[in-house]
Amino acid sequence: MARVLVSDPIADSAVKTIDDAGIELVHRDHEKDGPLEELIKGFDGIIVRSATKVTRGVIQAADQLKVIVRAGVGLDNVDLEAAKDNGVEVLNTPEAPTVSVAEMVFSLMFALARNVTQADSSMKDERWEKKKLRGVELWKKNLGIAGFGRIGQEVARMGKAFGMNILSYGGSRLIEASKKIGASPVSLDELLAQSDYLSLHVPMKSETEGMIGSKEFKKMRESAFLINTARGGVVDEEALLAALDQGQIAGAGVDVFENEPPVDWALAKHPKVVATPHLASSTFEAQNRVGELTAEKIIDFFK
Question: What structural domains does the chain harbor?
Fold first, then answer.
């Protein structure tokens, strides 16, 4: 019987499905259990979310590890090179949170465009600031999407439904996907210069770290809004703060941070920022899909 360590919580339904398949699950208690390097011995597989870091040290400490399943999209918390070196397969569930993340993008866009958070706060303070909080529309605006994978394409489809013009950048099948959705493929410089709303959907890699920094903000429109539901390190947070302070862009919707929770809360507290605590995939529906796909992939692997 295969033994799998569940290092981060997954849906109860997924746990039952895996149990019913005859796979032994052991749930890690982060407060009581020791370091993962000590705990990993004796397990054939491990299931993680974003909280657990599967480092080279963890992988090398394992004595029979065959598979790592990341219940979610990003793999930046797994040392992929170390896994490959040690013959450990890495699986994830990128299909699960697509709709939830795309909907979160529009939640942030509308909050910024229509000053929703400021309006709600003022009403709770019994202040009627109708004239002060006039906003802008999404209709006929340019929605620039950096990273045109599953989520980027879903954001594009929703943007089309709102009557937006879609600009696409990045991805191995960019031209084909753009043509199918009705987006216009552009260079990064064109994306920065033409976008009224710029939404980031790139994975966290060495080549994407800090890809939006001071140089890029200078190329953006002063009326533009930046939306980041990808990874915190994709945006240079100091450069973003400077761009907001200097009026280089109009505002930002930030769901992800370089450190989570932030060490420095200046960005989250900025008056031109709508900040959320990495909520993009945190819907009941998405988490159930994550669990179902995690169960399916771990069972299929051991079959």
Answer: 3-93+284-302 (3.40.50.720), 98-275 (3.40.50.720)
